[in-house]
Amino acid sequence: MYFPRRLEGELLRHVSRGKSVLLLGPRQTGKTTLVEKLDAPLRVSLVSPRERQRYEKDPSILLEEIRALGSKTRRGRRPLVIVDEVQKVPSLMDVGQSAIDAGEAQFIFTGSSARRLRRGQDINLLPGRVVALRMDPLTTEEDEKAPLKERLLFGALPAIRNVRLLADKETDLRSYVETYLEEEIRQEALVRNVGAFARFLELAALESGRISNFSRISADVGVSAATVREYFEILCDCLVAERIDPITKSASRKKLTKSSRYLLFDLGVRRLAANEGTRLNPSRMGELFEQLIGLELLRLCRTHLPRARVRFWRDPDGPEVDWVVEHGGRYLPIEAKLSERPTERQARHLRVFMKEYRARRGWIVCTAPRPMAVSKGVTAVSWRALPSILRGFRSRKAARSNGRNE
Questions:
Q1: What is the pTM of this model?
Q2: pLDDT per residue as tens digits for the range 123-132
Q3: C-beta of residue 116 within 8 angstroms of C-beta of residue 188
Q4: N or C: which end of the chain has fewer CB within 10 A?
Q5: CA atoms within 13 A on the CB side of 290
Q6: At 80, which helix (H) or strand (E)?
Q7: What is the CATH number of the domain that holds 87?
């Protein structure tokens, strides 16, 4: 089954206007499938060891191959060159800059890690020359039929969704964790203590979505808190974890949480990395539902509100709100409850936040089939309604901006 991706239209738009693109995303999120549809006279896959070694020895080979395409351009347009997994030979970004500046080619670079592209002394991310796009696992808009329980336990990677038997899904997810997370990421990040990193990865998966505590994890792993922080940075750079920062400013509260939360990018991968089975208790399923909503908000904001930030709010001695979308000085507070009938009591922290930050509406995202008024200004909606909530938040922002311009 092919899942139409919302990113496809944006990619095609930028390519059609002659821009080069850097398309980043974790492995198996569909980057290669997406670019395979494009008419490109030159495709380079650095996944192949032979191909990779060839360009490592002499990156200028790519420029010579591009120049050989000169007679094949149509309507005077530059030839499109696709370089897959460019982080494996980051020096090809320099070749790309040369070809772009000389008007010799248009590029699509794909990559599953920003670490080597960003951190080497001589690495070139082509600032101002490429449009950076992010490919994520499937969202609720792209895969409307996915059952909730399957999303919580097996995630949203397209390749996993296309596997019919649950036992086969489990096998493929385990292979992903063992070959990609434990091997490729460790090698790319030059992690020397293999055992410590493997134990850290398991704990990071178990602690996904919770307030980070580097000291506690360092005691369990046997490395310093600074090393634990670096390990989390590795996961974020390799696009398998997302860091979510808290709201720390308040007119009346002095003890707001300042530590971040980290979410692993896919709940199926998270579960296998944590060595958890499929029979989880209701409390744990509720935690995973909260993580699912956080991940959905991150992905939907990239599509509908690119400048928005997903945050959270927590007073250790009082109220907390699972997720808050911040955009243009406005806030959209959201609680996640794995329930068909949220109560007014479950809206009390939303009301506290709304009053303190002057948010007009609050939402409880749950499993109710239809919207329900829970409290003044607070509505409970199905988790599948998240896209419409974000679109409504964006349209209200646009309406207010237009009113000021008039």
A1: 0.90
A2: 455 667 889 8
A3: yes
A4: C
A5: 19
A6: strand 80-84
A7: 3.40.50.300
